[in-house]
Design goal:
Blueprint lengths: L7 E5 L5 H8 L2 H6 L7 H4 L7 E8 L2 E9 L16 E8 L9 H13 L7 E4 L6 H9 L3 E8 L2 E9 H7 L1
Parallel strand pairs: 4-5
Antiparallel strand pairs: 1-2, 2-3, 3-4, 5-7, 6-7
């Protein structure tokens, strides 16, 4: 058997993805990783500010997962608080439980990281898994993210991680 890398592509999420995203948002593994957020898909999919990209990852044309990349300094809810310019933040998940643990998330994250660092001025990427989500934390650490601090966002106790451009470039 020949090993091959799965063919994953990213495309913008659109209002046509509403039912899919609502379905994914209700899956037990997704709720467990993000229990208190209301993504407001009905509005978010119609609002495409310059500071945010919402992407659907597809595996050979089949929807696989979701990635959000945003500029935390410009994001309108100020979720990240006062942060310096030239950062990015990523939210990511696999939609269906049967697609977990197959390496797809790693490929999706590598694609998101590359996309974040395309603009030369971007210095680092932030991510905020739940403190209790040890599997996600190990996943991000394997990708080169470094723990910064534990922080409460709304009702969620999160572990903030950062990947500096220099660290990413040294790995590639």
């Amino acid at each position: 058997m020949i090993n091959s890398t799965p063919h994953i592509t990213l495309r913008p999420a659109t209002p046509a993805d509403l039912a899919l995203l609502q379905h994914w948002d209700e899956q037990p593994h997704t709720v467990a990783s993000d229990p208190n957020d209301d993504w407001g898909w009905e509005t978010a999919l119609h609002h495409q500010p310059e500071w945010r990209e919402q992407l659907i990852a597809e595996l050979d044309g089949r929807p696989l997962g979701f990635i959000q990349i945003l500029d935390p300094a410009l994001e309108d809810s100020h979720y990240w608080g006062d942060v310096p310019a030239n950062l990015r933040a990523i939210d990511i998940w696999i939609g269906e439980a049967e697609d977990l643990g197959r390496g797809y998330g790693t490929i999706m994250m590598q694609m998101a990281i590359t996309r974040c660092f395309l603009p030369e001025e971007v210095t680092a990427i932030m991510i905020d898994p739940l403190e209790s989500n040890t599997a996600a934390r190990r996943f991000y650490e394997r990708l080169g993210f470094r723990f910064v601090e534990n922080r409460v966002f709304g009702d969620d106790h999160c572990a903030v991680y950062r990947l500096d451009r220099a660290d990413w470039e040294n790995r590639h």
